[in-house]
Backbone:
């Protein structure tokens, strides 16, 4: 049929244009980085077996900066004081064993800046004298880590001390607290104080990192899954010279982080999937009825 | 003074006719507005465009309720308030974004249909010119709308496009500042483009749509063979019941029934894009908030501006601007550059047939090269050759059509 041929010509030219400006152009604009499946191939396994009991005795090396709340050990300094001292708040170690890679952590404890592909001013100094010490500490951290961490917890631990996510009410110093303004003046001093703390922390962090790390609220839509995955695996491959360290999450740990970023950055996804079939179904029926009307109107015209 | 029947019941047919001539209006605008029978689905693109404009208008009204034209709040009002706090806000935004992109695809199909079938000649010049004015207004509407989310691409596209008004070496920087209301895009800039997008441009577009419909009424719609009809005689045949012999059909309901069927198919595709494939219409770079201290690695316009962008880009500053200006106005002059007396589909007009298909392919090449990084010498060369081809085609048009032989209206 002639009309279908005309349609085919229109469709072919449209698809060529689409292919050129979307998949092809994007493949040319961004360099392709292959995912390494969070295997960290540049780090060799030490081969030593860690002993959690021995690690427990060596944890004092960490406690000078880090807290381990689940074991009743408070951090020596709060987020504000830590950022003044180090530029960034050291993480609590309670859940570290659940989302970070064992091999990575062992290398990291011996030489953090090197393992993280970070700048020489990296806040954490080498903290384990030998591979054995490092392995013991990591074994201990894994032994105290909870079996399950939520997507949100994974995000907060892996990203949340440098990155805010304002759409999820997350700041580098924690979740924005619920406060109430003074009813007579409308002024909310608790809120202002919290905001001032965030601002002070961010200034220190920006001085340490060179710039303020971006808010991650909708980073999933700005960068896409593939970029984020390979970037988190090793930031230097996608953005040479970046101050962002390699954080060394496991594949499962990253999947939780990604799921959380999608939850906060693309919250309409489940709704789209629910509404889409109904709308398209409606127009399908509409089109069938319109076709019957068209056929009845054009009957006997040619 | 007309006679008004005092006994006519209010809002009865007679009462309405005396006051508003509803029967005459209905006849002139719909039941006796004659359309050729010899057409294909491409003749429905006008209705598809009108419907898409309607979709843009309705979705725009909903978005306008929550959008805040403030440089500090605009980004979050779009990406947070509308996307996650407002019920179905995400749907209206995706509908608006996809429709803004798809409307240009349909405009280009509609334009190229007009060129292919010679629907800009012999009495139809004003249809073409009002249509091209609509294209220009839609472009301004699309650009001003693109500023509103105040993301990285909004900001830097705004910077680049307003810079064009310095007119290269003429350095009319005062004009650029006057347009921006500041040295760089800022609050004044956003406020102005907001006004343009939600009020002035839509008003102009609605006015031009009315004009575009008006210009159609006297010369009537063209047909697949470019044949000249005696519409009055053909209409008489129809009215006499000779539906088969008559070459025309009434707009309502016969032509409309086919339009509505095409609209149905179009909306299936449209909502497929809205729900499952909207990324093409929403550039990822614009999900980063505007940052005057950080230029994106690649700055490029939306796909529908790429062909004219690629006529600007391969040349030096001043030469590029001249050819860019050429590309903006040259389509408008088509009815006067085509010197041939033939109103016929391009495939029966040699060498115009070659001209048409080279133009289509060349514009697609320009579009693709316009997005690819010009740092690659191969892409830059292909882009430059395509730009020269575009310019050459339009310079050659009067000469190749002047020598064209007269072809019969029918096969």
Residues:
């Amino acid at each position: 049929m002639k009309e279908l041929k005309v349609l085919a010509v229109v469709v072919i030219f449209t698809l060529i244009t689409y292919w050129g400006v979307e998949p092809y152009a994007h493949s040319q604009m961004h360099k392709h980085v292959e995912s390494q499946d969070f295997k960290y191939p540049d780090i060799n396994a030490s081969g030593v077996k860690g002993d959690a009991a021995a690690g427990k005795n060596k944890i004092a090396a960490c406690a000078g900066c880090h807290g381990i709340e689940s074991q009743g050990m408070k951090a020596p300094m709060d987020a504000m004081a830590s950022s003044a001292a180090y530029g960034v708040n050291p993480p609590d170690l309670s859940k570290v064993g659940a989302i970070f890679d064992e091999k990575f952590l062992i290398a990291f404890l011996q030489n953090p800046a090197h393992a993280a592909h970070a700048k020489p001013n990296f806040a954490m100094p080498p903290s384990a004298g030998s591979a054995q010490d490092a392995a013991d500490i990591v074994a201990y951290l894994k032994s105290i880590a909870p079996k399950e961490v939520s997507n949100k917890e994974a995000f907060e631990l892996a990203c949340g001390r440098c990155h805010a996510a304002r759409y999820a009410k997350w700041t580098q110093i924690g979740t924005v607290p619920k406060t109430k303004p003074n009813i007579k003046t409308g002024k909310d001093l608790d809120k202002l104080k919290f905001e001032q703390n965030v601002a002070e922390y961010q200034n220190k962090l920006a001085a340490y990192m060179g710039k303020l790390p971006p808010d991650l609220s909708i980073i999933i839509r700005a960068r896409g899954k593939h970029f984020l995955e390979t970037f988190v695996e090793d930031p230097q491959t996608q953005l040479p010279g970046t101050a962002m360290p390699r954080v060394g999450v496991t594949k499962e740990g990253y999947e939780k982080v990604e799921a959380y970023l999608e939850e906060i950055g693309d919250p309409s996804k489940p709704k789209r999937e629910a509404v889409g079939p109904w709308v398209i179904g409606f127009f399908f029926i509409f089109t069938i009825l319109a076709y019957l009307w068209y056929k009845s109107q054009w009957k006997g015209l040619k | 003074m007309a006679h008004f029947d005092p006994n006519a019941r209010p809002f009865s047919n007679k009462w309405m006719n005396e006051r508003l001539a509803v029967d005459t209006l209905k006849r002139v605008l719909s039941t006796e507005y004659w359309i050729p029978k010899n057409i294909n689905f491409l003749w429905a693109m006008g209705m598809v465009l009108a419907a898409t404009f309607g979709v843009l208008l309705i979705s725009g009204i909903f978005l306008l309720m929550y959008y805040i034209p403030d440089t500090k709040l605009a980004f979050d009002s779009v990406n947070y308030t509308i996307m996650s706090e407002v019920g179905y806000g995400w749907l209206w935004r995706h509908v608006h974004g996809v429709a803004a992109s798809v409307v240009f695809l349909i405009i280009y199909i509609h334009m190229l249909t007009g060129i292919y079938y010679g629907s800009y000649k012999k009495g139809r010049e004003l249809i073409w010119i009002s249509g091209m004015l609509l294209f220009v207004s839609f472009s301004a509407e699309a650009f001003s709308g693109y500023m509103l989310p105040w993301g990285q691409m909004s900001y830097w596209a705004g910077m680049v496009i307003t810079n064009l008004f310095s007119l290269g070496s003429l350095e009319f920087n005062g004009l650029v500042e006057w347009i921006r209301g500041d040295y760089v895009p800022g609050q004044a800039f956003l406020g102005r483009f907001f006004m343009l997008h939600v009020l002035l441009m839509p008003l102009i577009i609605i006015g031009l749509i009315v004009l575009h419909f008006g210009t159609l009424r006297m010369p009537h719609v063209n047909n697949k063979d470019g044949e000249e009809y005696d519409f009055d005689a053909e209409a008489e045949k129809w009215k006499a019941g000779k539906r088969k012999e008559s070459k025309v059909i009434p707009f309502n309901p016969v032509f409309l029934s086919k339009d509505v069927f095409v609209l149905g198919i179009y909306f299936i595709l449209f909502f497929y894009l809205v729900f499952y494939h909207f990324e093409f219409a929403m550039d990822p770079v614009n999900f980063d908030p505007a940052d005057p201290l950080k230029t994106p690695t690649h700055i490029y316009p939306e796909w529908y501006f790429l062909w004219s962008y690629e006529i600007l880009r391969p040349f030096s500053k001043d030469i590029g601007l001249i050819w860019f200006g050429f590309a903006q106005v040259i389509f408008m002059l088509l009815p006067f550059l085509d010197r041939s007396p033939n109103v016929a589909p391009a495939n029966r007009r040699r060498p115009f047939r070659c001209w048409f298909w080279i133009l289509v392919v060349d514009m697609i090449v320009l579009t693709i090269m316009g997005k690819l990084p010009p740092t690659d010498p191969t892409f830059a060369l292909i882009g430059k050759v395509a730009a020269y081809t575009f310019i050459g085609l339009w310079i050659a048009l009067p000469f190749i059509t002047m020598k064209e032989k007269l072809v019969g209206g029918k096969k």
Observations:
- DSSP finds 16 helices and two strands in chain B.
